[in-house]
Structures are given as structure tokens and as C-alpha cells.
Design brief:
With 83 residues, this protein is mainly α. It has a domain at 1-43. It is 34% helix and 0% strand. The chain is built from two helices and no strands. It has helices at residues 3-16, 29-42. The longest helix is centred in the first third of the chain and has 14 residues, at 3-16. The radius of gyration is 25 Å and the shape is elongated.
């Protein structure tokens, strides 16, 4: 079921129960995105997620590194005996 079908079902239910119809899907998208952007601008990154050089929040702890940041040398690991 997509958003339009869900909206049609919710509108039908509201009409049957004599309740006001719900807002159409996507009606508040701009306001939500504007609020998120404002929040992102006014709140600094969390200490556990330091900002990158360009000021954007960096990945959290345990985040997988991009392929180009992985080690490039493929030496064999040391033997368990230490020899």
C-alpha cells in the first residue's frame, strides 16, 4: 500500500467516524526538512561523533571505513608462535 492509498483509507475511516480528514501525504515535508536543517545548523556534533574537516558530522564509533581508507599493504599476519 502506498501513501496515497493509505491516505484514501484514512480519509474514508475519518468520514465514517465523523472525524476531520487527515492532511494529504507530503503536506508537511518542507517544514520538517527546514526544521531538521535548522537543528543541524544550531546544534554542534556530539563529542562521540567529531566533525569532519568540512564541519559536517562524522561517522559514529564502530562505523565501517570507506574502501579507500582501508590498509593497502597486505602483509601476512605474524605467526602465533612469535617466530
Amino acid at each position: 500500500m502506498d501513501a496515497i492509498q493509505q491516505h484514501m483509507l484514512d480519509t474514508y475511516r475519518a468520514a465514517q467516524l465523523a472525524e476531520p480528514a487527515p492532511p494529504p501525504p507530503g503536506r508537511h515535508d518542507r517544514a520538517v526538512l527546514r526544521d531538521l536543517y535548522h537543528h543541524w545548523l544550531t546544534h554542534p556534533p556530539h563529542p562521540a561523533r567529531p566533525a569532519l574537516e568540512d564541519g559536517t558530522p562524522g561517522p559514529g564509533p564502530g562505523h565501517l571505513q570507506p574502501v579507500w581508507r582501508l590498509r593497502t599493504d597486505r602483509r601476512a599476519p605474524p605467526s602465533p608462535s612469535g617466530a
